């Protein structure tokens, strides 16, 4: 889903410098905002985490044990999928961090 509006929150910018974490779960929602901001809500064992990246082209995408037909478009192909996401933590309330990698898993 691509939205032309700006993200509802002013997520921290700049390079992802926070503590690195990896989490696995199901992507409940994936929304893109113009020009290339991606915001995900990940259900990680019953706890929802909000993850983002201002430029989704800077996220590395992969698949392990999952077949991807054609190219992966993060705005429309991630919702409902199991994923392992590496991210850099941010200090904003309600937002876990900036995505570094998204790996689709079984």
Architecture blueprint of SSEs:
Blueprint: E1 2-3, E2 20-33, E3 37-44, E4 47-53, E5 60-64, H1 74-77, E6 82-89, E7 97-105
Parallel strand pairs: 1-2, 4-7, 5-7
Antiparallel strand pairs: 2-3, 2-6, 3-4, 6-7
What radius of gyration results from the CA coordinates? 13 Å
Low-confidence stretches: none
What does the overall shape look like?
globular
Please tell me the overall pLDDT.
Answer: 89
So how many helices?
Answer: 1
Q: What is the tally of beta strands?
A: 7
Q: Name the helicity range.
A: under 10%
Largest sheet entry = 5 strands, mixed, barrel
| Distance from first to last alpha carbon | 23 Å
Q: Determine the strand fraction and express it as a percent band.
A: over 45%
SSE succession: EEEEEHEE
> Which strand order does the major sheet show?
2-3-4-7-6
- Structural class of the secondary structure composition? mainly beta
